[in-house]
Amino acid sequence: MMKAEKISEVSTNRLSIYLRCLNELAAEGERMVSSGSLESRFNLNSAQIRKDLANFGEFGVRGVGYYVKSLREHLITILGLDKEHRVCIIGAGRLGTALADYYGFKSSNFQVFALFDIDKTKIGKKVGKVKIFDIKSFAEIVKRDNIDVAVIAVPGEFAQNVLELVTRAGIKAVMNFAPVPLRVLDGVKLKTIDLTTSLESLSCFLAGSNGKYLKPISKNGRIY
Amino acid sequence: MMKAEKISEVSTNRLSIYLRCLNELAAEGERMVSSGSLESRFNLNSAQIRKDLANFGEFGVRGVGYYVKSLREHLITILGLDKEHRVCIIGAGRLGTALADYYGFKSSNFQVFALFDIDKTKIGKKVGKVKIFDIKSFAEIVKRDNIDVAVIAVPGEFAQNVLELVTRAGIKAVMNFAPVPLRVLDGVKLKTIDLTTSLESLSCFLAGSNGKYLKPISKNGRIY
DNA sequence: TGATGTGAAGCGGTTCACAGCC
DNA sequence: GGCTGTGAACCGCTTCACATCA
What we know:
Strand content of chain A: 15-25%
CATH topology of the largest domain in chain A: Rossmann fold
Strand order of the largest sheet of chain A: 7-8-6-5-9-10-11
Oligomer: homodimer
CATH class of the largest domain in chain A: Alpha Beta
Helix content of chain A: 40-55%
Order of helices and strands of chain A: EHEHHEEHEHEEEHEHEEHE
Number of strands of chain A: 12
Mean pLDDT of chain A: 90
Structural class of chain A: alpha/beta
Low-confidence stretches of chain A: 214-224
Radius of gyration of chain A: 22 Å
């Protein structure tokens, strides 16, 4: 029997968190864990844990809890972490090279295979072990190296065009650091990380506009 | 008259987006704009725009729209972008130095004043114009330079301790790149950006576990 | 007995639709 | 007439509470 369901992104994001907790527990040699103990130890919500996991099957044993090893393996499969992913970064500026450096050394199943830029003076150089290619050869390199994840690290005004280039090359998973809203085709997953908005949200908090706010209303309802 | 209200973070985050749009319109010399035209041009939701703005006052003119210049100034004030912010980054590893470099050159009201690390071989060196200090002198430097924003870019296992150090130094706005959930005191704003979870959400999508998912149920409800 | 899995209630944010005002 | 500002309806996620089962 199969039940079709739409699982929310917040829920799958939490699976990442759960996996980290399980990694810790596994490292400590724990065999079993209950949603309640995860709640108290890692400051999570037990009902939410059970609901999130139940989206993907019945992984637990009633009256007992979850087997750490088995649940960990399930999460790895669900998150696709049992497969290698090959990443390219478009934009070899400050952020792009930083990310190449950062991800490049992470011992994980994501590996950066290529950087791309339009600037002739950068093309051919290397950042760590990663070579910078001409954006013109994008489709070719993506195909050659079987790249399946793209990171957009170009200025906002070029981001939409880059996204279309990426999509045309057949890449289905894109992480975007350009601070602009992008339109994406169905079947392509776009995750935008907006460092500017994040900083501004801190600034907003410091300015006192966030959280509890006193809305000023003059007699006629207009603000001056 | 004053009305006390709690404004959600998603709403204030959207103000950043609106400000960007207004900057574009201002650069083009537009004097007025309506929520409807913002919707069609920037792919936003007009009702949401009106609600978000109405949280902070009546900035519009019925039957007409919003004055670009005036609304832009209001948003800048609300977001606290009329004030300079001084940033420090704790952790002079790959990510920390990358961010120092990235934010350091951004022409904005955020300026990176100091990097901190525990590693003696890094202390004293410079990343661009930003010097790396001993974490032991954290409170002192923060006070000396009037730093009001901290960025945590240390490995997960140290993040909570660093957060407490930051809080004790009186900093009220913290951006965290360590992939761990942190406990924070009331009155301190913590924004966590989890690059690992973001990548894993892409991986999850590629694995087909995201979006519409077929929940497998065997006869007895157990998954094998 | 005790922890999972899950309908139901609760809650917050989004969208609708229209009153109010220029 | 037209667009803002806003109560009301709507929707989806979270939390609760308990039936279920090892």
